[in-house]
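Our preliminary data section would be incomplete without showing what the modeling component actually yields. Below, a chain of 616 amino acids is followed by its predicted structure, encoded as tokens that our downstream tools consume directly.
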Amino acid sequence: MDKPKNQCVVLMADRPAEQIVAIKQKRTLSLAAFCQRIILWRELVKKQKGVSAALYFNDTAEFAAAMLALLQEGRRVFLPSDTLSATCHRLKQEVDFFVGDFPQTCQPLNTLGNLWVNTASEMETSETGSHCSLTLPADAEIVIYTSGSTGQAQAIPKNIMQFVVEVATLEKVFDTCLEQADIIATVSHQHIYGLLFKVFLPLVTGRAFNADIFHFPEEIAAVSASRDVVLVSSPAYLKRFAYGSVWQATQHRIRAVFSSGGLLDYAAVEQVKAWTGNAPVEVYGSSETGGIAWRKRQNGNEEHWRALPGVAWRCSEASGALEVSSPHLRDNNWFSTADRIQMIDEQHFLLLGRLDRIVKIEEKRISLEAIESALKQHHWVTDARVVVVDMEQAGKEKLAAVVVLSHAGRQQLQSTGKLNVNSQLRHWLAKSVEQVALPKIWRYLETLPVNAQGKTTYSTLKTILDTEMSETATLQTATDFPEFAILEQTRSRVLLETLLPPTLLYFQGHFPGQPILPGVVQLDWAIRLAKQYFSIQCDSNIQRLKFQHIITPGMRVRLELVNEAEKSRVAFRYFSETAQHAEGQIVCENISGEDVQSRANRQIQPSDTFNFRHGE
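Predicted structure:
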């Protein structure tokens, strides 16, 4: 498909103004209010110089309104997956300005206030019977990024027609599954999967989406108790789901579950079937290609994939790689993927693993997936990733294994130490792989770190392994307070995120072989940040303290702080994509309702000290 010129795409055609576009908690956003928000964003964008903008919002409705405004104003939109300092530094070389929840150092455009404050009154004043439409230039361009699971994230430009065509394909195949249910998601709209299913699909087809990103089963159960929903999720989330009584009253409201971003274990498929009555719909694709194929393992362990309508595919005779030609691509050329396949028939194929995970070590071709598969067959191992690292001092590339141990494996680690476990696993691998393919570096984690798309990225694993590779890392080079990025910020609530570096001071010696973040450090950070963002001028104590799951190096962790001024306390909780780690309440005698924004720039002083005691 050649890049269209001087054409327009009608994204929402002549819809009733009172139609619900988005939902957040108990509030709804009408189409009239949504279009008004787009107009307000356009007025701000018009004042900005430059042709490209980086966009990041945690709230999907605000994200969608700002994105559509930017596209209508002819700006090129870049969608980063996070707002960490390294990401922002890279973006400053690529874009002219920033829009959304970026650090203040980026001078982001974000002055419209809370979208949801006046949504009820806006709905009441919208004219019943009036209609709204939204058009975009057909060559409007969005730059998305690959997940980075096999290397550094790469920028992928796409025009709006690619998204519109793909939505039409999804609607054609999955209309029966989707019905008229609301779209809810555990994945981010900053990545192509969430962008397609949570933003473009509902906008084009007239369904409502929930503006929140859900982290816990209880949140999903609460939403689906009163409205039919379609859950857009990932294998990393679904396989860790808490399947229990929380679903019994709401399972008939969950009309469908979608999974993408990796292969879903069949055990997780069976569990999803148990509480929804239907197997999840698995979608296979990539940032470069868009959707390629799908499957629904309803009646057994059917591993084959069926191509989506309009997607032509073939198997490369030279490499065995899947090659596709699709309207979801920017042109009519064949695109060679990094996935090996086996052809079943003209419509179906099996995935056999990734070609880009074949590496050369000392002139030997080695399959990283084969090593991982062999490791996971050991009863001490529940999950593993193997990556290539550059040993600078030796001038060689070596293999490193990041391993999640089973209960038996953790017991062995505690009783005999890391060197013994390393030796035993290397001996196990030696039965099936060559000597040169045995990992030289080993790291043991509670879980593999995943991002908002449910992917374990190479860059995160590389960060975790840096400590193991460096012989010069000392307490003097370690940090004692990581950088926290702001995801959401209101007068009474702030949501922060940090990637915990292995060089963190508190991981050193706590504990040898399996470092974890001490609970006392988690409390200290919560109090320090509460003092920074809210007006707390008193000594503090802690009540209702719970530590649920340990925090390990390399984890991406979020901290939510809620100023409950009327109760003279600040509630906090640490959580990640995989679990809730800790929660409690900082109780004070003197909390004011001072605006969060006015205190955001307050610097924590070395003299700040905190006294606390364990409560319930």
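The first helix runs from residue 31 to 46. The chain has 15 helices and 31 strands. Preliminary results of this kind motivate Aim 1 of the renewal.
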